[in-house]
Amino acid sequence: MLSGANLSEQYFTDRQDRYYWFKNNPALSGFYSGLLQLIESLSFGLETSPNGIKHVDTGLSLRAGVPDPSVEPKRYKSVFKTTMDAFWSSFLARESIQTAILTPSNDTVVFPTCQVGPCDFTNDHQVVDTALATVPSTETLHITTPYCNFTEDFTNIMFKECQAPQINVIVAHPTANGFFKGKGAHTLIPWAYSSFLERFHAVVAKAGQMARVHLLEYERPDWTFHAKGLWFEFPKSNTEQTPTGVSVVGSSNFGFRSAQRDLEAQAVVISQNERLVNSMREEMTHIFKTGSEVSE
User: Fold this and answer.
1) CA nearest 7: which of 181, 226, 188?
2) Global pTM?
3) Mean pLDDT across the stretch 5-29?
């Protein structure tokens, strides 16, 4: 199962998020299992590993051969990126089509991605940017993120390279932000992102994109919002019965932190399966129906 959810109790009761369950696909499971094992091998452990290095201040330990990022940050980043590059190359070499994983029905492709900005591994950033640039000029692009803080690159591609005649963006209303009922400084976070939304609204206006880019806020009584991703379709051709649906699902917010600070994992799902395409469309409609358009 792939999701951007943190899986605390609220996610099972009154928090809107997204979940994609992939069944009977060992290659895809193997990718994410291998990714988790790789991250674990480069992370601090609670227990001392054989021949490992123990951190003096915290008591945590690293495996033998892994540089301490608090002591040798440049070397650690280099080791991390080299290990990630090798993992990614190995994954591509195992897949016969060199680019993605086919589902058993062969009508759906799943392309996993990963982003570790601090270590200069930017696979997800590159894939999502490419996806934006391929949206047909006849179709609407839908984007969802709880935190509106798009990177400059993402915004430029959205405005200049994406050919969609309409772009709908939904974000969390301050009352739907997970920090709305927080304590202390946390209470300021929803309003900080509200100011980011106002700033993005101004950017849209300055770029002359107001007729094309529609901003909405998710607002539902007693619910919070944490859904992340995007959707668009390719129209069906004369030989196809179903349009091709595309959805990106995972943990990225498409913002600065996701690009430069956090470790993110996603998947691009491309399908001509009529049932799945309809399900993706219904999911998008369900999320956007609770949005109220942002005005000046």
Assistant:
1) 226
2) 0.91
3) 91
